[in-house]
Design goal:
Blueprint lengths: L1 H5 L15 E3 L4 H11 L1 E5 L7 E6 H4 L1 H5 L6 H4 L13 H11 L3 E6 L2 E7 H12 L2
């Protein structure tokens, strides 16, 4: 177990950025909702070209639309910009502590302000399982 907890995030994270649910901050609400239907959350970046992470939108954030939808709203209007992030060099132990203290199931992995992946409870459970039962 100690070996698992000391493992670096880069060994566990999903680094397939092309496979992550991502929208640009100026994406329309229709695009945001399509992504939420498929993945239940979306990372929000300034522009796809720079991948600078600026927020997250979850299904809970979409509830803001029920009471306050206005024509022309963008992703940045409903995103949460207070993010708890990890770096590829952090240890799994530190990420688990962040997830546990905040009640998060996923944390973006950021390097030089750029989204380079994500680490989720699912990734951690899979890796822990393979560590125990190799």
């Amino acid at each position: 177990m100690e070996e698992f907890l000391e493992m670096r995030v880069e060994k566990v994270m999903n680094s397939r950025v092309w496979d992550l649910p991502i929208v640009e901050k100026d994406a329309g609400i229709k695009v945001v909702l399509v992504v939420l239907i498929g993945r239940c959350y979306s990372w929000v970046v300034k522009k796809i070209d720079d991948m600078k992470l600026v927020g997250i939108i979850t299904e809970h954030d979409a509830l803001k639309l029920i009471d306050g939808y206005k024509e022309g709203m963008k992703a940045e209007d409903i995103m949460s910009s207070r993010l708890t992030m990890a770096s590829p060099d952090e240890k799994v132990r530190d990420v688990l502590e962040k997830m546990n203290s905040k009640g998060y199931r996923r944390i973006p992995v950021v390097e030089n302000e750029r989204l380079v992946g994500e680490i989720t409870l699912r990734h951690l459970i899979e890796r822990m399982y393979s560590s125990f039962f190799q």
